[in-house]
Amino acid sequence: MKVLAGKTAVVTGASRGIGRAIALRLAAEGASLVLTARDTGLLDSAAEAIAKAGGSAIGIAADLRKPAAAAAVAQAAIRAHGFIDILINCAGATKRGEFEDLTDDDWQDGFALKLFGAVRLTRAAWPHLRERRGSVVHIAGSGGRTPGAQFAVGGSVNAALLSFTKALAETGLRDGVQVNCVNPGPVRTARLEARLAHIAAERGVTREDALAILLARERITRVAEPEEIAALVAFIVGPQGRSLHGSLIDMDGGSTKTI
Length: 259
Fold this sequence. Notes:
- By secondary structure, the protein is α/β, with parallel strands linked by helices.
- The protein folds into two domains: 205 residues, NAD(P)-binding Rossmann-like Domain (Rossmann fold), CATH 3.40.50.720; 35 residues.
- The protein is built from eight helices and seven strands, in the order βαβαβαβαβαβαααβ.
- α1 crosses α8 and α6 crosses α7.
- The mean pLDDT is 96.
């Protein structure tokens, strides 16, 4: 039984990594997907993968850093399907680096996509989510709870998303919309592979050694696969996850050490 049959899901950052894995999983559970990201080619590839697996997906290329983009994505989803049941805000990569090297543009870009893009798209989709008693899931990150010197921008943006989740969950109680947030730790994506390559080059070691260094540095059990995050998201928005509301769920291999 496909537990999301008859549902429409909008997934941002759906062209690669965690967002793509979430889109594929929700489609496998029966949802019709509206995918959005900036890269048209990668969006088409994700939509084709869903279609080959027997699912339904359309791609909408959009830069959610631009104020008008979120409303355009929501409108396109409504034109295509007539309603929105699920919104997954997964778009947004932030720049790592030493604080003194991070520019105003680095900070503004980090907040523009991951926070303000999520805020705008949630606002645009909210009337439709309210009508369908739908679900919103933000994909933030463990840095929102456990900041680090190299992750000043990302940790700050993720912390803002955690606070936004709690505030929005209060509105969701009134309007019948489920709101939650997932905090992944390191996940096996192209971005992580770039970090491993940097560590390997810096230390003069193999990729496997670089991975061991990363695990020790982050103090985690393992690196997650994108499909693991996707499975958690599918559970949250499915019928068995409806008691989760206002939850900030760490799926990070133990990197979050605080209560």
